[in-house]
Amino acid sequence: MIVCKFGGTSVASSEQIQKVANIVKSNPARKIVAVSAPGKRSGEDIKVTDLLINLAMAALKNEDIEDELQIVVNRFMAIADGLELDHTICDVIAEDLRERVLGDKSNEELFIDSIKAAGEDNNAKLIAAYFNSIGMPARYVSPKDGLVVNDLPERTYALPEAYVNLAPLKDTKEIIVFPGFFGYTKAGILRTFDRGGSDITGSILAAAVEAELYENFTDVDCVFSANPKVVNDPVEIKEITYREMRELSYAGFSVFHDEALMPVYKIGVPVNIKNTNNPSAPGTRIVPRRSAAARPVTGISADSGFSTLYVSKYLMNREVGFGRKLLQILEDENISYEHTPSGLDDISVIMRSNQITLENEERILSRVKNELQADDVQMRHGFSMIVIVGEGMRNNTGLAARAATAISKTGANIEMINQGSSEVSLVFGVLQEYENQILQALYEEFFAHVRV
Fold it and tell me: Nearest to residue 307, comparing CAs of 284, 286, 335?
């Protein structure tokens, strides 16, 4: 069995959904299809998810929601008309939206989640109806029928029983069309996954049915070794390990969500990233292990929006529990951290800037200064993390020196350097204004002059 997921651009219009049907029909092993909400049809278009957020905000403000609701219904109606479906399915969608808008608003986050999830949920119903209309026996299955997730306040993840509940889908004779992006708690509360949530749903389904392959269809032929918007004509990656992909996704690779790898990683289901618009292209395979490559570096990625909490205290290394106390202060503010490079008398905690506000920054600095008796405490913003990834790096000497030399040629200063114990990745912290220059310089060093 193959589980396949189709992203927003793959299901954005009737023409795209017809391509999806042809892809699914071309291989009888493709029995489970996870779908996103309709994405952009062109550069100026608006995603259905964004239309639904507008609807949710109008409802929360007790404004007239008819215009916003009709815009969403019209979008689905245009798809239905293009697929020559009768408007019964659009009536179902309109009724579903009205029920959601009239739902419990006491928790705004959960209310918005419910409205947003209508994009995936109703698109799955529409696509299942289309499959049946062209002679492809199909059945819509709701996440309510098995995809059990945790309760607030932690970020959403599937509970172990979700995999048990969904396992019987492996025996389906029909094509299962399953909406991505959300699940339900044991109490029946809808919760959405983080960005790229449909990737996570597809991965959960693939793991639950122990699929032979998880195909993730998007709008690019493959994963590239660097951002093609920054680096001209980067090398295509034909095969990459779970660990490599996880590291690259963490720092800006948007083709595949890093959290989506965990379910398939646990049982070793390979992933194939493919293009809905060019399904014959081999794509990029994500596998548990691969043979050694000629290049030690598989890919280079970069992501901005990081802040650094710098703390200095003489004889810090002799003080038992200092690091725990420091991280406890961040935990009290519900802030997670990314890296903690340190020296004998100082430590830096690197975190995502979107977690920092003027209020909690002031509290953090005050507590660290007073409770830990630190000599110097600073919060600095505007950093990027540049990540070099490759399974072959651990067997390659002088790689860090080559990277540092390439970075120095751009005039940028390396603010932080961190290498994981697995030696699969090397992370450099730099001022984000140098991000693109550094990405180009590192690509030139590790790819442009290497013949494979």
Answer: 335
* 84 Ramachandran zone, left/alpha/beta (phi>0; psi -120 to 50): left
Burial (CB < 10 A; 0-12, 13-18, 19+), residue 187, is exposed
Residue pointed to by tokens 């204004």: 433
The Cα–Cα gap between 282 and 28 comes to 18
Instruction: List the structure tokens of 385.
Output: 């993390």
Q: How many CB atoms lie within 10 A of CB 67?
A: 11
Instruction: Quick: pLDDT tens for 223-281.
Output: 888 888 889 888 888 998 888 888 887 666 666 766 788 899 889 999 999 999 999 99
Residue 452 pLDDT class (50, 70, 90 cuts): very low
Question: Which tokens hold the place of 398?
Answer: 């002088």
How many CA atoms lie less than 13 Å away from 178 in the CB half-sphere?
33
Cα–Cα distances in angstroms (integers) from residue 322 to residues 307, 318, 330, 371, in the given order? 21, 9, 13, 10
